[in-house]
Automatic annotation (TrEMBL):
Coiled coil: none annotated. This is Methyltransferase type 11 domain-containing protein. The lineage of its organism: Eukaryota, Viridiplantae, Streptophyta, Embryophyta, Tracheophyta. It comes from the Eukaryota. PROSITE patterns: SAM_GTMT. One of its GO terms (molecular function) is S-adenosylmethionine-dependent methyltransferase activity. Residues 6-57 form the Methyltransferase type domain. Residues 21-29 are annotated as: SAM motif II. GO terms for biological process: methylation.
């Protein structure tokens, strides 16, 4: 029979207290939307992931922009601002933005 050891620790996701390359699986569930610095957030996840490890990010995002778009529509910006203001959230990004961040960190992306 397999045994697993599980522990929980409260820490700053942007300054994690774990050593480099510590975990085979790094799972982030609905926390990216709370991070003011998405690049730092993903960088920390990558830092604590072991070589060949898996990083899973499940987070609220706004839609990906079309190639012809430079930004979200004003009504979308307004709605996101209302949500962010109500829940004290920093700006959101798209899934495509997370992919760009991951690729800039030389991470292999699998969606």
């Amino acid at each position: 029979m397999l045994e697993f050891v599980v522990s929980f620790q409260v820490a700053d996701a942007l300054e994690q207290p774990f050593p480099d390359e510590q975990f085979d699986l790094v799972w982030s569930m609905e926390s990216g939307e709370h991070m003011p610095d998405k690049m730092k957030f993903v960088s920390e996840l990558a830092r604590v992931a072991a070589p060949g490890g898996i990083i899973a990010i499940v987070t609220w995002c706004h839609r990906d922009l079309l190639p012809s778009e430079k930004s979200l529509r004003p009504d979308e910006v307004s709605l996101l601002k209302r949500i962010c203001d109500a829940y004290y959230l920093p700006a959101w990004c798209s899934a495509a933005d997370y992919v760009k961040i991951a690729e800039s960190l030389s991470l292999q992306v699998d969606i």
